[in-house]
Write the C-alpha coordinates for this entry.
Amino acid sequence: MSSSSPSPTAAAAAAAAGPDYETLANRFRPIFAKIAEGASRREQDHQLPFAEIRELASAGFGAVRVPVAHGGAGASLPQLFRLLTELAAADTNIPQALRGHFAFVEDRLVSSGAQREVWLERFARGEIAGNSWTEVGTVKIGDVITKVSPDPASGEGNFLVNGTKYYSTGSIFADWIDTFAQRTDDGTKVIAVVNAHQPGVVHSDDWDGFGQRTTGSGTSTFTDAVVESENVIDFGTRFKYQTAFYQAVLLAVLAGSIHGAERDIADEVRRRTRIFSHGNADSFAADPQILQVVGQVSARAYAAEAVVERAAQALQGAYEAAFGDDLVEEEHRNDLAELETAQAQVILTELATRATSDIFDALGASGTSTGKNLDRHWRNARTAASHNPWVFKARIVGDWVVNGATPPRVWSIGAGPKADLAAK
Protein backbone atom coordinates (compact mmCIF):
# COMPACT_ATOMS: atom_id res chain seq x y z
CA MET A 1 0.00 0.00 0.00
CA SER A 2 1.44 3.36 -0.99
CA SER A 3 2.16 5.89 1.74
CA SER A 4 -0.25 8.37 0.11
CA SER A 5 -3.20 6.00 0.27
CA PRO A 6 -5.45 6.01 3.34
CA SER A 7 -5.55 2.86 5.42
CA PRO A 8 -8.72 0.72 5.43
CA THR A 9 -9.31 1.95 8.99
CA ALA A 10 -9.18 5.60 7.92
CA ALA A 11 -11.43 4.85 4.95
CA ALA A 12 -13.95 3.18 7.26
CA ALA A 13 -14.08 6.25 9.46
CA ALA A 14 -14.64 8.48 6.45
CA ALA A 15 -17.41 6.21 5.15
CA ALA A 16 -19.34 6.45 8.40
CA ALA A 17 -20.91 9.71 7.27
CA GLY A 18 -20.38 9.68 3.51
CA PRO A 19 -20.95 12.60 1.13
CA ASP A 20 -24.05 14.77 1.00
CA TYR A 21 -26.77 12.40 -0.14
CA GLU A 22 -28.69 14.75 -2.41
CA THR A 23 -25.51 15.76 -4.21
CA LEU A 24 -24.61 12.11 -4.67
CA ALA A 25 -28.08 11.02 -5.78
CA ASN A 26 -28.43 13.88 -8.25
CA ARG A 27 -25.48 12.43 -10.19
CA PHE A 28 -27.56 9.37 -11.00
CA ARG A 29 -31.19 10.51 -11.00
CA PRO A 30 -31.22 11.46 -14.71
CA ILE A 31 -30.04 7.91 -15.48
CA PHE A 32 -32.64 6.48 -13.11
CA ALA A 33 -35.34 8.46 -14.95
CA LYS A 34 -34.26 7.03 -18.30
CA ILE A 35 -34.22 3.55 -16.80
CA ALA A 36 -37.77 3.99 -15.50
CA GLU A 37 -39.04 5.06 -18.92
CA GLY A 38 -37.98 1.78 -20.51
CA ALA A 39 -38.54 -0.64 -17.63
CA SER A 40 -41.98 -1.92 -18.64
CA ARG A 41 -41.02 -2.31 -22.29
CA ARG A 42 -37.81 -4.16 -21.43
CA GLU A 43 -39.75 -6.62 -19.35
CA GLN A 44 -42.42 -7.19 -21.97
CA ASP A 45 -39.81 -7.71 -24.70
CA HIS A 46 -37.40 -9.58 -22.40
CA GLN A 47 -34.66 -7.13 -23.23
CA LEU A 48 -31.80 -7.33 -20.76
CA PRO A 49 -30.53 -3.95 -19.46
CA PHE A 50 -26.98 -4.17 -20.83
CA ALA A 51 -26.89 -0.54 -21.92
CA GLU A 52 -28.49 0.71 -18.71
CA ILE A 53 -26.04 -1.11 -16.45
CA ARG A 54 -23.10 0.01 -18.56
CA GLU A 55 -24.27 3.64 -18.35
CA LEU A 56 -24.55 3.38 -14.58
CA ALA A 57 -21.08 1.84 -14.33
CA SER A 58 -19.58 4.52 -16.57
CA ALA A 59 -21.12 7.17 -14.33
CA GLY A 60 -19.46 5.66 -11.28
CA PHE A 61 -22.50 3.97 -9.73
CA GLY A 62 -20.64 0.72 -9.12
CA ALA A 63 -17.99 2.63 -7.18
CA VAL A 64 -20.17 4.67 -4.83
CA ARG A 65 -18.80 2.74 -1.84
CA VAL A 66 -15.18 3.06 -3.00
CA PRO A 67 -13.26 5.71 -1.01
CA VAL A 68 -12.82 9.08 -2.69
CA ALA A 69 -9.04 8.64 -2.61
CA HIS A 70 -9.47 5.63 -4.91
CA GLY A 71 -11.82 7.34 -7.34
CA GLY A 72 -15.15 6.47 -5.77
CA ALA A 73 -17.84 8.47 -3.98
CA GLY A 74 -17.11 7.28 -0.43
CA ALA A 75 -20.79 6.58 0.32
CA SER A 76 -21.92 5.02 3.58
CA LEU A 77 -24.01 1.86 3.56
CA PRO A 78 -27.25 3.71 4.39
CA GLN A 79 -26.54 5.97 1.40
CA LEU A 80 -25.88 3.00 -0.86
CA PHE A 81 -29.17 1.40 0.08
CA ARG A 82 -31.08 4.66 -0.41
CA LEU A 83 -29.62 4.81 -3.90
CA LEU A 84 -30.53 1.18 -4.56
CA THR A 85 -34.09 1.87 -3.42
CA GLU A 86 -34.34 4.80 -5.83
CA LEU A 87 -32.95 2.65 -8.61
CA ALA A 88 -35.39 -0.15 -7.75
CA ALA A 89 -38.28 2.29 -8.04
CA ALA A 90 -37.13 2.82 -11.63
CA ASP A 91 -36.51 -0.87 -12.39
CA THR A 92 -36.33 -3.50 -9.66
CA ASN A 93 -34.32 -5.84 -11.88
CA ILE A 94 -31.20 -3.69 -12.05
CA PRO A 95 -30.29 -3.41 -8.33
CA GLN A 96 -30.77 -7.15 -8.02
CA ALA A 97 -28.53 -7.67 -11.06
CA LEU A 98 -25.90 -5.59 -9.25
CA ARG A 99 -26.30 -7.37 -5.92
CA GLY A 100 -23.25 -9.58 -6.43
CA HIS A 101 -21.20 -6.60 -7.55
CA PHE A 102 -21.85 -4.52 -4.46
CA ALA A 103 -21.26 -7.54 -2.22
CA PHE A 104 -17.86 -8.10 -3.80
CA VAL A 105 -17.05 -4.40 -3.48
CA GLU A 106 -17.91 -4.68 0.23
CA ASP A 107 -15.68 -7.72 0.61
CA ARG A 108 -12.74 -5.91 -0.97
CA LEU A 109 -13.35 -2.83 1.19
CA VAL A 110 -12.82 -4.78 4.40
CA SER A 111 -9.91 -6.81 3.01
CA SER A 112 -6.24 -5.93 3.39
CA GLY A 113 -3.13 -6.32 1.28
CA ALA A 114 -2.07 -5.11 -2.15
CA GLN A 115 -5.04 -6.65 -3.95
CA ARG A 116 -7.43 -4.33 -2.12
CA GLU A 117 -6.14 -1.33 -4.03
CA VAL A 118 -6.11 -3.25 -7.31
CA TRP A 119 -9.80 -4.04 -6.96
CA LEU A 120 -10.84 -0.60 -5.78
CA GLU A 121 -9.18 0.91 -8.83
CA ARG A 122 -10.98 -1.58 -11.08
CA PHE A 123 -14.32 -0.62 -9.58
CA ALA A 124 -13.51 3.06 -10.04
CA ARG A 125 -12.83 2.35 -13.74
CA GLY A 126 -16.36 1.00 -14.05
CA GLU A 127 -15.64 -2.72 -13.95
CA ILE A 128 -18.54 -4.85 -12.69
CA ALA A 129 -18.57 -8.12 -10.76
CA GLY A 130 -21.21 -10.81 -11.05
CA ASN A 131 -22.25 -13.64 -8.79
CA SER A 132 -22.15 -17.45 -9.21
CA TRP A 133 -22.63 -19.38 -6.00
CA THR A 134 -25.53 -21.85 -6.24
CA GLU A 135 -24.73 -25.36 -7.47
CA VAL A 136 -26.95 -27.06 -10.04
CA GLY A 137 -28.64 -30.41 -9.39
CA THR A 138 -28.96 -32.58 -6.29
CA VAL A 139 -25.74 -31.52 -4.61
CA LYS A 140 -25.86 -32.17 -0.87
CA ILE A 141 -25.90 -29.29 1.57
CA GLY A 142 -22.30 -28.32 2.28
CA ASP A 143 -20.85 -29.92 -0.84
CA VAL A 144 -19.25 -27.85 -3.59
CA ILE A 145 -19.13 -29.39 -7.06
CA THR A 146 -17.44 -26.45 -8.78
CA LYS A 147 -13.70 -27.05 -8.51
CA VAL A 148 -10.58 -24.94 -8.74
CA SER A 149 -7.47 -26.88 -9.83
CA PRO A 150 -3.85 -25.83 -10.26
CA ASP A 151 -2.97 -25.35 -13.92
CA PRO A 152 0.38 -27.09 -14.44
CA ALA A 153 0.57 -25.83 -18.02
CA SER A 154 0.48 -22.14 -17.08
CA GLY A 155 3.84 -22.03 -15.33
CA GLU A 156 2.56 -18.94 -13.51
CA GLY A 157 0.66 -20.47 -10.62
CA ASN A 158 -2.71 -20.00 -12.29
CA PHE A 159 -5.77 -22.16 -11.62
CA LEU A 160 -8.59 -23.60 -13.73
CA VAL A 161 -12.25 -23.45 -12.74
CA ASN A 162 -14.74 -26.13 -13.79
CA GLY A 163 -18.39 -26.35 -12.81
CA THR A 164 -21.91 -25.11 -13.38
CA LYS A 165 -23.84 -22.58 -11.33
CA TYR A 166 -27.45 -21.42 -11.29
CA TYR A 167 -28.98 -18.15 -10.04
CA SER A 168 -25.92 -16.40 -11.48
CA THR A 169 -27.51 -13.02 -11.01
CA GLY A 170 -25.61 -10.23 -12.73
CA SER A 171 -22.91 -12.44 -14.25
CA ILE A 172 -24.16 -11.91 -17.78
CA PHE A 173 -23.44 -8.18 -17.40
CA ALA A 174 -20.15 -8.60 -15.56
CA ASP A 175 -16.44 -8.23 -16.20
CA TRP A 176 -15.59 -10.47 -13.23
CA ILE A 177 -17.50 -13.31 -11.58
CA ASP A 178 -17.40 -13.93 -7.83
CA THR A 179 -17.55 -17.76 -7.88
CA PHE A 180 -17.86 -20.06 -4.86
CA ALA A 181 -15.75 -23.18 -5.42
CA GLN A 182 -13.45 -25.71 -3.78
CA ARG A 183 -9.76 -26.29 -4.43
CA THR A 184 -8.84 -29.80 -5.54
CA ASP A 185 -5.34 -29.64 -4.09
CA ASP A 186 -6.11 -28.85 -0.46
CA GLY A 187 -9.93 -28.93 -0.20
CA THR A 188 -10.21 -25.28 0.81
CA LYS A 189 -13.47 -23.52 -0.03
CA VAL A 190 -12.67 -20.38 -1.94
CA ILE A 191 -13.95 -17.46 -3.92
CA ALA A 192 -12.53 -17.67 -7.43
CA VAL A 193 -12.83 -14.28 -9.08
CA VAL A 194 -13.00 -15.25 -12.74
CA ASN A 195 -12.51 -12.88 -15.66
CA ALA A 196 -15.82 -13.15 -17.54
CA HIS A 197 -14.27 -12.26 -20.90
CA GLN A 198 -12.75 -15.63 -21.80
CA PRO A 199 -13.90 -18.65 -23.83
CA GLY A 200 -14.15 -20.88 -20.77
CA VAL A 201 -17.08 -18.87 -19.37
CA VAL A 202 -20.58 -19.25 -20.83
CA HIS A 203 -23.81 -17.67 -19.55
CA SER A 204 -27.38 -18.68 -20.29
CA ASP A 205 -30.25 -16.30 -19.59
CA ASP A 206 -32.52 -19.20 -18.59
CA TRP A 207 -34.12 -17.91 -15.38
CA ASP A 208 -37.83 -18.71 -15.83
CA GLY A 209 -39.41 -16.94 -12.87
CA PHE A 210 -42.65 -15.01 -13.35
CA GLY A 211 -41.00 -11.87 -11.96
CA GLN A 212 -37.61 -10.15 -12.01
CA ARG A 213 -37.32 -11.38 -15.59
CA THR A 214 -34.47 -9.15 -16.72
CA THR A 215 -31.96 -9.63 -13.91
CA GLY A 216 -29.91 -11.85 -16.24
CA SER A 217 -30.09 -14.67 -13.71
CA GLY A 218 -29.53 -18.18 -14.99
CA THR A 219 -26.83 -20.74 -15.63
CA SER A 220 -23.10 -20.02 -15.75
CA THR A 221 -20.76 -22.75 -16.97
CA PHE A 222 -17.01 -22.76 -16.36
CA THR A 223 -14.86 -25.01 -18.53
CA ASP A 224 -11.16 -24.69 -17.77
CA ALA A 225 -11.74 -21.03 -17.06
CA VAL A 226 -8.46 -19.43 -16.01
CA VAL A 227 -8.18 -17.63 -12.70
CA GLU A 228 -4.98 -16.06 -11.39
CA SER A 229 -3.62 -17.26 -8.06
CA GLU A 230 -4.13 -13.85 -6.44
CA ASN A 231 -7.83 -14.08 -7.36
CA VAL A 232 -8.37 -17.35 -5.50
CA ILE A 233 -9.49 -16.08 -2.10
CA ASP A 234 -10.01 -18.19 1.02
CA PHE A 235 -13.74 -18.17 1.76
CA GLY A 236 -12.94 -17.97 5.46
CA THR A 237 -11.79 -14.38 4.97
CA ARG A 238 -15.09 -13.29 3.41
CA PHE A 239 -16.70 -10.24 5.05
CA LYS A 240 -18.77 -11.43 7.99
CA TYR A 241 -21.99 -9.54 7.28
CA GLN A 242 -22.29 -10.84 3.72
CA THR A 243 -25.60 -12.71 4.16
CA ALA A 244 -27.20 -9.68 5.77
CA PHE A 245 -25.82 -7.53 2.96
CA TYR A 246 -27.26 -9.76 0.23
CA GLN A 247 -30.63 -9.68 1.99
CA ALA A 248 -30.52 -5.91 2.35
CA VAL A 249 -30.24 -5.50 -1.43
CA LEU A 250 -33.47 -7.50 -1.75
CA LEU A 251 -35.01 -5.22 0.88
CA ALA A 252 -34.17 -2.24 -1.33
CA VAL A 253 -35.74 -4.09 -4.27
CA LEU A 254 -38.95 -4.57 -2.28
CA ALA A 255 -39.04 -0.98 -1.08
CA GLY A 256 -38.41 0.25 -4.62
CA SER A 257 -41.20 -1.95 -5.97
CA ILE A 258 -43.68 -0.15 -3.70
CA HIS A 259 -42.37 3.25 -4.81
CA GLY A 260 -42.73 2.18 -8.45
CA ALA A 261 -46.30 1.04 -7.81
CA GLU A 262 -47.04 4.33 -6.04
CA ARG A 263 -45.72 6.29 -9.02
CA ASP A 264 -47.69 4.33 -11.58
CA ILE A 265 -50.97 4.23 -9.66
CA ALA A 266 -50.85 7.99 -9.10
CA ASP A 267 -50.22 8.54 -12.80
CA GLU A 268 -53.10 6.25 -13.82
CA VAL A 269 -55.53 7.90 -11.39
CA ARG A 270 -54.43 11.38 -12.42
CA ARG A 271 -55.02 10.72 -16.13
CA ARG A 272 -58.23 8.70 -15.90
CA THR A 273 -61.35 10.38 -17.29
CA ARG A 274 -63.96 7.63 -16.81
CA ILE A 275 -65.77 7.41 -13.46
CA PHE A 276 -68.30 5.06 -11.86
CA SER A 277 -71.90 6.18 -11.38
CA HIS A 278 -71.74 4.95 -7.79
CA GLY A 279 -68.46 6.69 -7.08
CA ASN A 280 -67.95 9.81 -4.96
CA ALA A 281 -66.76 12.59 -7.26
CA ASP A 282 -66.93 13.99 -10.77
CA SER A 283 -63.34 12.93 -11.44
CA PHE A 284 -61.36 9.87 -10.45
CA ALA A 285 -58.55 12.04 -9.13
CA ALA A 286 -60.96 13.67 -6.65
CA ASP A 287 -62.70 10.53 -5.41
CA PRO A 288 -61.86 10.21 -1.68
CA GLN A 289 -61.96 6.40 -1.68
CA ILE A 290 -59.56 6.19 -4.58
CA LEU A 291 -57.29 8.72 -2.90
CA GLN A 292 -57.40 6.59 0.24
CA VAL A 293 -56.05 3.58 -1.66
CA VAL A 294 -53.26 5.68 -3.18
CA GLY A 295 -52.47 7.11 0.23
CA GLN A 296 -52.22 3.68 1.78
CA VAL A 297 -49.81 2.53 -0.93
CA SER A 298 -47.75 5.69 -0.38
CA ALA A 299 -47.67 5.08 3.37
CA ARG A 300 -46.37 1.57 2.80
CA ALA A 301 -43.65 2.98 0.53
CA TYR A 302 -42.69 5.35 3.34
CA ALA A 303 -42.57 2.56 5.90
CA ALA A 304 -40.56 0.34 3.56
CA GLU A 305 -37.94 3.01 3.03
CA ALA A 306 -37.65 3.50 6.79
CA VAL A 307 -37.19 -0.25 7.29
CA VAL A 308 -34.40 -0.36 4.70
CA GLU A 309 -32.71 2.61 6.39
CA ARG A 310 -32.79 0.88 9.78
CA ALA A 311 -31.32 -2.34 8.35
CA ALA A 312 -28.63 -0.38 6.51
CA GLN A 313 -27.62 1.32 9.76
CA ALA A 314 -27.08 -2.12 11.30
CA LEU A 315 -24.89 -3.08 8.35
CA GLN A 316 -22.92 0.13 8.75
CA GLY A 317 -22.26 -0.82 12.35
CA ALA A 318 -20.94 -4.23 11.26
CA TYR A 319 -18.74 -2.59 8.62
CA GLU A 320 -17.18 -0.17 11.10
CA ALA A 321 -16.61 -2.96 13.63
CA ALA A 322 -14.55 -4.86 11.05
CA PHE A 323 -11.80 -2.26 11.51
CA GLY A 324 -11.79 -2.30 15.29
CA ASP A 325 -9.88 -4.53 17.71
CA ASP A 326 -12.86 -5.75 19.75
CA LEU A 327 -13.81 -9.17 18.38
CA VAL A 328 -16.71 -9.58 20.80
CA GLU A 329 -18.24 -6.29 19.70
CA GLU A 330 -17.66 -7.16 16.05
CA GLU A 331 -19.47 -10.47 16.44
CA HIS A 332 -22.32 -8.72 18.24
CA ARG A 333 -22.74 -6.18 15.46
CA ASN A 334 -22.69 -8.87 12.81
CA ASP A 335 -25.38 -10.79 14.67
CA LEU A 336 -27.46 -7.61 14.89
CA ALA A 337 -27.08 -7.01 11.16
CA GLU A 338 -28.29 -10.54 10.45
CA LEU A 339 -31.23 -10.21 12.84
CA GLU A 340 -32.32 -6.77 11.67
CA THR A 341 -32.25 -7.71 7.99
CA ALA A 342 -34.28 -10.82 8.87
CA GLN A 343 -36.84 -8.76 10.78
CA ALA A 344 -36.97 -6.33 7.88
CA GLN A 345 -37.51 -9.16 5.40
CA VAL A 346 -40.47 -10.54 7.33
CA ILE A 347 -42.29 -7.22 7.43
CA LEU A 348 -41.28 -5.98 3.96
CA THR A 349 -42.55 -9.17 2.32
CA GLU A 350 -46.00 -8.35 3.62
CA LEU A 351 -45.76 -4.61 2.91
CA ALA A 352 -44.56 -5.02 -0.67
CA THR A 353 -46.87 -7.79 -1.80
CA ARG A 354 -49.86 -6.04 -0.21
CA ALA A 355 -49.08 -2.62 -1.67
CA THR A 356 -48.38 -3.90 -5.18
CA SER A 357 -51.65 -5.83 -5.10
CA ASP A 358 -53.70 -2.95 -3.65
CA ILE A 359 -52.97 -0.69 -6.62
CA PHE A 360 -55.65 -2.59 -8.55
CA ASP A 361 -58.29 -1.60 -6.00
CA ALA A 362 -57.94 1.94 -7.27
CA LEU A 363 -58.03 1.15 -10.98
CA GLY A 364 -60.66 -1.49 -11.58
CA ALA A 365 -60.50 -4.00 -14.42
CA SER A 366 -58.77 -1.59 -16.80
CA GLY A 367 -55.74 -1.67 -14.52
CA THR A 368 -55.18 -5.32 -15.39
CA SER A 369 -54.48 -4.56 -19.04
CA THR A 370 -51.37 -6.39 -20.23
CA GLY A 371 -50.47 -3.25 -22.13
CA LYS A 372 -50.20 -1.31 -18.88
CA ASN A 373 -48.11 -4.14 -17.38
CA LEU A 374 -48.88 -2.94 -13.86
CA ASP A 375 -48.90 -6.49 -12.58
CA ARG A 376 -45.10 -6.49 -12.96
CA HIS A 377 -44.85 -4.64 -9.65
CA TRP A 378 -46.58 -7.47 -7.79
CA ARG A 379 -44.77 -10.19 -9.73
CA ASN A 380 -41.41 -8.56 -9.09
CA ALA A 381 -42.11 -8.02 -5.40
CA ARG A 382 -43.43 -11.54 -4.94
CA THR A 383 -40.38 -12.98 -6.70
CA ALA A 384 -37.83 -10.91 -4.77
CA ALA A 385 -39.60 -11.75 -1.51
CA SER A 386 -39.39 -15.47 -2.28
CA HIS A 387 -35.60 -15.53 -2.06
CA ASN A 388 -34.24 -16.83 1.26
CA PRO A 389 -37.71 -17.81 2.59
CA TRP A 390 -38.92 -15.42 5.25
CA VAL A 391 -40.60 -18.19 7.23
CA PHE A 392 -37.20 -19.52 8.29
CA LYS A 393 -36.03 -16.01 9.09
CA ALA A 394 -39.08 -15.41 11.30
CA ARG A 395 -38.29 -18.58 13.25
CA ILE A 396 -34.65 -17.53 13.66
CA VAL A 397 -35.72 -14.13 14.99
CA GLY A 398 -38.18 -15.79 17.35
CA ASP A 399 -35.50 -18.13 18.63
CA TRP A 400 -33.30 -15.12 19.35
CA VAL A 401 -36.09 -13.22 21.12
CA VAL A 402 -37.16 -16.18 23.28
CA ASN A 403 -33.95 -18.14 23.76
CA GLY A 404 -31.13 -15.76 22.85
CA ALA A 405 -30.05 -18.11 20.05
CA THR A 406 -27.34 -16.73 17.78
CA PRO A 407 -28.55 -16.43 14.17
CA PRO A 408 -26.71 -18.38 11.46
CA ARG A 409 -24.68 -16.02 9.29
CA VAL A 410 -23.58 -18.48 6.60
CA TRP A 411 -25.97 -21.06 5.21
CA SER A 412 -26.50 -23.02 2.00
CA ILE A 413 -29.11 -24.92 0.03
CA GLY A 414 -28.91 -28.45 -1.31
CA ALA A 415 -30.38 -31.95 -1.27
CA GLY A 416 -31.44 -33.33 2.09
CA PRO A 417 -30.77 -36.82 3.45
CA LYS A 418 -34.05 -38.17 2.09
CA ALA A 419 -32.75 -37.57 -1.44
CA ASP A 420 -30.25 -40.38 -0.85
CA LEU A 421 -33.02 -42.73 0.25
CA ALA A 422 -35.12 -41.86 -2.79
CA ALA A 423 -32.20 -42.64 -5.10
CA LYS A 424 -31.82 -46.17 -3.68
